Amino acid sequence: MTVDSPARVRVAKAVRTRRRHNPVTWVQRGGLTTLLFLLPLLIIFGVFSWTPIVEAVIMSFQKTNLVTAPVFVGWDNFVAVFEDPVFWIAVRNTGFFALLALLFGYPIPLVAAVLMSEVKRMKGFYSVLAYLPVVIPPVVSVLLWKIFYDASPNGVFNTILGWVGIPPQPWIQDAVTAMPSLVLEATWAGAGGTIIIYLAALTSVSPDLYDAAEVDGASIWGKIWHVTLPQLRGILFITLILQIIATAQVFLQPFLFTGGGPVNSTTTILLLIYQYAFTQSLGGAYGQATALSLMLAAFLAILSIVYFRLTARWSDN
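Now predict its structure.
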């Protein structure tokens, strides 16, 4: 019996690869039919997704009001964004919002899902109750919470604080408390979807693992730390990067609650993009708006790539 040499094996693999990539073989295996079925989807995706992206890239190097002929200005729009002092305030505010959202909005859905999974009765009712804020239109939620945040002593939250002897708080009317107030509403509005994801993931955790931990004398917190969290590791990594991306693009809360105030304390990057495009000069600074949009997209893309590279091995383990 002869044994193939490594060189002969490599040659055989190269031949098989060439045959597999041969156009005739590709057509015989149904590649052309597959392409014909995908063609409408590719056309629609290209027209409605990639065309606006390409136009945004081009616009970021132009000065235009979308009416008269655009003028190429090179990197001037990017330089103008960096030289705008409000830009650095928006970056700081967006980072502060993301930090508060991670400290409060990230663990709360997980804790709620674990507690709800331990409930023996009315689990469906609690699931519906947790998901209800997601069903409410976001604009309605903000308008509702603006009533709660009434700074007068008769406001809903201030009335509750008055029951325990705490004086009325300014909430969204003060630069110090405005951003935490926005994070509180955003956490309430968005936690329900994450809770449902965690509840679905918890159903895949084998009860035998909890039984083994109980035999070893583990407490409820020991079970969560040594069984629940390791089993949800992959889901936790996904929800973390999704929350970072979402918080970096926060717009609705600062726009409807405060308009970026007081004193730009809640101006975020997306709100600044809106201000560039629609509220600054006559016709809008669309070039600066698209330039800042591309900068944000590039930052989130790089962050996502680095994040998945760092967490890929942890998720597999």
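The chain has 16 helices and two strands.
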